[in-house]
């Protein structure tokens, strides 16, 4: 196995007090924002995301860390820092953009880049939670699985049935062929 040593991460810091910019700094470009928004602690035990057309955003029962990841298009392993409550406390957000400020979504939308709703959610999180995001490159161990000189030495599994065949209903989801599960948080 080879070892690589760099990975891009975003350090997320939630600060309770507002940071006042100095007069010598130029203000950053203004992000779009929702016309109206409600942010409340969640009472739900389940998470539900709804993005109806017309510039609406509805998220019920999500952690702030998940919302940050959605808004900034980051994976959980790309976010570091912040108090422990950002991974524990659940939030409900209902928001609506001003009329005709959000273009209609198309199937070809690039989900790795923030769209209008994601940019508006960034503004909302920065305003309501005093969120500050800092992007940097850090070195982390990364492993690459590569075949050896003589090629792979993989063995066939005992069950060589077609993966496209629907398994019987009594087989648990995590034991079905082609399924993977990530443990822990």
Task: Show the helix and strand layout.
Layout: E1 2-4, E2 7-14, E3 36-41, E4 48-50, E5 56-63, H1 64-72, E6 79-80, E7 90-96, H2 116-129, E8 131-138, E9 142-144
Parallel strand pairs: 2-6
Antiparallel strand pairs: 1-9, 2-8, 3-7, 4-5, 5-7
Q: Biggest sheet, open or closed, and with what strands and sense?
A: 4 strands, antiparallel
| Main structural class | alpha+beta
Backbone CA Rg = 22 Å
Oligomer: single chain
How far the N terminus sits from the C terminus, by CA atoms, comes to 25 Å
H and E string? EEEEEHEEHEE
Please work out how many helical segments DSSP would assign. Answer: 2
**Uncertain runs with pLDDT below 50, 5 residues or more?**
1-24
Considering DSSP H and I runs of 4 or more, what fraction of the residues is helical? 10-25%
Shape estimate: extended
Strand order of the largest sheet: 3-7-5-4
The beta-strand count equals 9
Q: Strand percentage, roughly?
A: 25-35%
Roughly what is the average pLDDT, rounded to an integer? 77
């Amino acid at each position: 196995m080879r070892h690589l040593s760099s990975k891009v991460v975003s350090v997320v810091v939630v600060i309770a007090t507002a940071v006042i910019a100095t007069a010598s700094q130029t203000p950053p470009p203004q992000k779009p924002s929702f016309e109206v928004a409600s942010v409340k602690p969640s009472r739900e035990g389940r998470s539900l995301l709804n993005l109806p057309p017309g510039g609406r955003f509805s998220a019920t029962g999500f952690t702030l860390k998940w919302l940050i990841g959605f808004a900034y298009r980051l994976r959980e392993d790309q976010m570091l820092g912040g108090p422990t409550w950002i991974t524990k406390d659940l939030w409900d957000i209902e928001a609506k953009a001003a009329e005709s400020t959000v273009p209609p979504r198309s199937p070809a939308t690039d989900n790795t880049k923030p769209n209008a709703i994601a940019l508006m959610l960034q503004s909302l999180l920065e305003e309501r939670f005093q969120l500050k995001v800092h992007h940097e490159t850090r070195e982390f161990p990364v492993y690459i699985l590569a075949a050896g000189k003589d090629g792979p030495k993989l063995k066939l599994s005992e069950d060589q049935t077609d993966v496209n065949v629907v398994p019987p209903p009594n087989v648990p989801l995590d034991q079905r062929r082609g399924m993977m599960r990530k443990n822990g948080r």
